[in-house]
Amino acid sequence: MNKVLLNYLLKNYLKVVSIVFFVIYFFGIILNLFEEIEFFKNTNAGFILPIILTSIYIPSMLIKLSPFIIFVSSMIFLSKIRNNKDLLVLKIFGYSNFKIFLTLAFTSFLIGWFLLFVLNPVTSFMAKYYEKTKSNYARDIGHLATFNKNGLWIKENYPNFQRIITAQKPEGTNLIAVSIFNLDNNSNLISKINAEKADIKKKEWILHNVVFSKIENEVFISEEKENLIIYSKYNFEKINNLFKNFDTLSLIDIIMNKDSLSNKGYNMIFLNQNLHTLLTLPFLCFLMTAIGSILTLNTLKQSDGLKYVFVGLVTCILVFYFKDLFLALGQTNRMPLILSIWTPVLTLSFFIFIGVLQINEK
């Protein structure tokens, strides 16, 4: 009998979770499709491309929202079995509130790890395709920046000339071993600048230990300068923001290739932030199921579903606000970044432990 009851709980709970995931995915496609159509309306892309890009963009958003989805699923499932008296039947056959909570919460915990190790690599690959495809249609395609195995490459278009910038690697707010090629509109070389490093905090780059070369009478003339200032369309913040889309990085990518990603230009602080944010996902799924259990298992009486919808939305808003607040404290160095990521999990665990003890007594 216990096996039958366990199968009932797991089968119906996973069914509710799947339905909620599908519903949110469907609404996500509808909402994001308008944005994609707006982006592609002045291009030669057909109507199918926005649909495809929307369908592969939403899954990565669902992983971020999975604690919220798990919470809603828990509330729906537990309210359903309470209102149709199945909860009473489970209690008669020896399933306490704590046992029901633990079964569902541990299932949610496993769902979190499944999302990280099975779906997250797939969604990160889809996000890469999404970013690459959209970049091909970007209106400012003349201005590009990318990192590859040869370092940083930047292309800039100006009214009277083009500029190609290469650098061996970033180091803080500096670029190391910088080469700058200025070309005319026919792609003929006008001048070349080699610098030991470039300070790119602002768009007025400060080049250090410079060798400036230009063509005069078809001959290169070189001049050494201690410092040289040039204007660029990029600064440190803009270049750094190009590599903050961690949707393109899976948990496995970060764990296995953290040093390699850092060498390519990804900020180590943000890599650690994303790593620990992803690691909190299964624990948040567990805790959100616990919150749903505390709100619904405190009584066997039927109740108005709208009340629980309102309470659930307020709870989710508070939890995610609490989470973002501590993350902001970590990002502004008010507290250690890793601690700021895990503090909401630890704090919620304490309060939920008290709540679970209370529902177990009922």
Write the layout of secondary structure elements.
Layout lengths: L1 H39 L7 H36 L2 H7 L4 H40 L7 E5 L2 E7 L4 E10 L2 E10 L5 E11 L4 E13 L2 E13 L4 H6 L9 H14 L3 H12 L1 H16 L8 H27 L5 H24 L2
Antiparallel strand pairs: 1-2, 2-3, 3-4, 4-5, 5-6, 6-7
Helix pairs in contact: 1-2, 1-4, 2-4, 2-8, 2-9, 4-8, 6-7, 7-10, 8-10, 9-10
Structure, explained:
This protein is of the alpha+beta class. The chain folds into two domains: 2-138 and 244-360, no CATH class; 144-232, no CATH class. The protein contains ten helices and seven strands. The protein has helices at residues 2-40, 48-83, 86-92, 97-136, 236-241, 251-264, 268-279, 281-296, 305-331, 337-360, and strands at 144-148, 151-157, 162-171, 174-183, 189-199, 204-216, 219-231. Strands 1-2-3-4-5-6-7 form a seven-stranded antiparallel sheet, with no helix packed on it. Helix 1 (2-40) packs antiparallel against helix 2 (48-83) and helix 2 packs across helix 9 (305-331). 28% of the residues are buried.
Proportion of beta-strand residues: 15-25%
Distance between the termini: 23 Å
The total beta strand count reads 7
**Shape type:** elongated
Biggest sheet overview: 7 strands, antiparallel
Strand order of the largest sheet: 1-2-3-4-5-6-7
The SSE order reads HHHHEEEEEEEHHHHHH
List the total number of helices: 10
Low-pLDDT parts are 139-143
Structural class: alpha+beta
| Average of the residue pLDDT scores | 81
Over all CA atoms, what is the radius of gyration? 27 Å
Helix content: 55-70%
Number of domains: 2
